[in-house]
Amino acid sequence: MTPSDDAPALAVFAPNSLPAQASPDLALQARYQSLRAASLALAAPLSPEDQQVQSMPDASPVKWHLAHVTWFFETFLLKPWLPDYEVFDPNYVYLFNSYYEAVGARHPRPARGLLTRPSLAGVLAYRAHVDAGMCRLLGAPLGRGVRDLVTLGLAHEEQHQELILTDILNLFAASPLKPAYDAGRRQPSAGGTGGFVDLPGGIVRVGAGDQDFAFDNETPLHEVLLRPYRLADRLVTNREWQAFMEDGGYRRHEFWLSDAWARVQAEGWEAPLYWERHDDGWWAMTLAGLAPVEADAPVTHVSFFEAAAFAAWVGKRLPTEAEWEHAAAARPGAFAQMFGEVWQWTASAYTPHPGFAPASGAVGEYNAKFMVGQMVLKGAARATPAGHSRPSYRNFFYPHQRWMFAGLRLASDAPAAEGSEAFQFDVLTGLAAARRRLPAKWFYDAAGSALFERICAEPEYYPTRQETALLASIAPELAACIPAGATLVELGSGASVKTRLLLDAAPQLAAYAPVDISETAVAAAAAAIARDYPALRVSPVVADFTRTWGAVGRTDGLVGFFPGSTIGNFTPDDAVELMRGVHERLGPGGLFIVGIDLAKDEATLTAAYNDAAGVTAAFNLNILARINRELGGDFDLTGFAHRAVWNRMEGRVEMHLESLRPQTVTVARSHFSFVRGETIHTESSYKHTLEGFEALAQRAGWRVARSWTSAAPAVAVVLLTPA
Ligand code: AVI
Asked: Of 99, 440, 587, 647, which sees the most CB atoms within 10 A?
């Protein structure tokens, strides 16, 4: 939906480059028919006069919209691809071309309302003629490229369906009679709590990759670095907007950008478009007619200029496009009103994504040439056809425009890094303890996670290799135990080779829910799985799985998956606690697949945590670097050495950092003195026996239904069912 009133464009295609299907695409045929009928249904409440008039240059008559979308199918599908197609009227190329220079000259946009010929009946006959042609085209097997063009034509018509409502509201608002388009039409409504959701940022992926359909302007998928940020869980309301107005918002230049302030004065803005002051308060023109402004509904029909001024007034800012998109994709459940209420202005200019290439041919004009001077809006409005939009969708308008259904959602920079308070608490209490310790979970910042990946590839570190091989060989047996329609709930962000082994072996799984405290990790995992398993419902959950996690969808048929012998990093009591919690959340029908490392000879165990390349040492020392970086510590990394020892009594490999000399370290204004040889205990890796683990599982209400053991060095996978 561009202000130039044609819609943005599609993925790159080459219509005849791919082989035809064996038979007609019946689903596409049905979609074509119902979508074309929906356009007529939208026009049905309108008289021929209503459909004729153009209220302003930006808006088009309904009659023109109905004809233009039809011209699109005739020009880009029927003329090139239906061999004996007869053009309905050669003059229509001039009348109904919107902006395609490659197709030729056209009638000026501001004068579309002057096209009294063809009549509305003539336009409807044109539609019927093109529909008959499309019916013939879609009745034959088609190449992928032609089907993509039809899909583009349909997405294009959906955009004009919204424009029909947008433009008719503008026309009716100009009428002294203030007619209702549909007196019973529901208006955007309240939602959310008014709070802000914290997002940790990091390097995230946005844009459209390989999916069924996306406009070319959404592509390609690309990385963006986001600083930690906060995004409001709902849209700005009319009540808040009135407070802005009452505080002199439209009269105080300090909130406005220079161009914006000029526009406020030139056009005398003092409220959103369509608002009218009555004796009993503010009223606004809507598709349901003139109605009192509803205080808790989202403010609508504001320009980017106004949205930015409001954000400045309230001490916040608009989100960037990438912030909005990442939040919508990674935390869909955390926000109200993302889609289907009003479009949301972002702080981002509408420019090409890095690596963008316009679609080839005339449809390459669809989006690319508008990439200057406009701002991106995300989400979707009530008037947007259901299913039309998605997180990567890019709507765009000029910053002064406000006749479209546009509102805003606030954002701000996050005050501090993710989890920093908890990290500081654990570090200060751990270093102050008589036996100094640091919880192993803090190993996994970006550098730590990368080092752990490298550990898994070291020859001495056998658990990952052995477990992967074991899972590969038992996947069919495990899969046979998984009920149809089940959800795989992975503890940890997963999406590794092991997850895929299970997903490949158990196509009956309907959904996948990775649960992880790191928003970035869980979103990346979810995106990777969603991309490679399109039939799977993927719902990432940002939560500490040792505590609780939110709904993961259906509560029957939940299958927990906890590979990697990570349960070995819990003390036996904590492992029982964890398994008890998982039992509770997976419910009485739940299954739990756990990977464990088995006790074995000391030499193999200690070698695994003392690799010759020193990767485990670097992993261990990295926690001190993290303290220095995130908490302003002054650890000298050369003053500590990595130690890994087998504690036979406890049945665990312990990692420590040993002070090589007497020294004092300062962290967050606290001082910690070390004597030579003193250690900080950083990790325990418990090595279980099958019997010992079974006893722990029983304490947590589980029964070992089956277990499988790998070749030496041995690890095991156990399948737990409720006891
Ligand atoms: C993640 N966890 C199971 C690993 C382990 O073996 O305890 C972490 C690790 N620590 C040192 N090497 C690997």
From this structure: 440
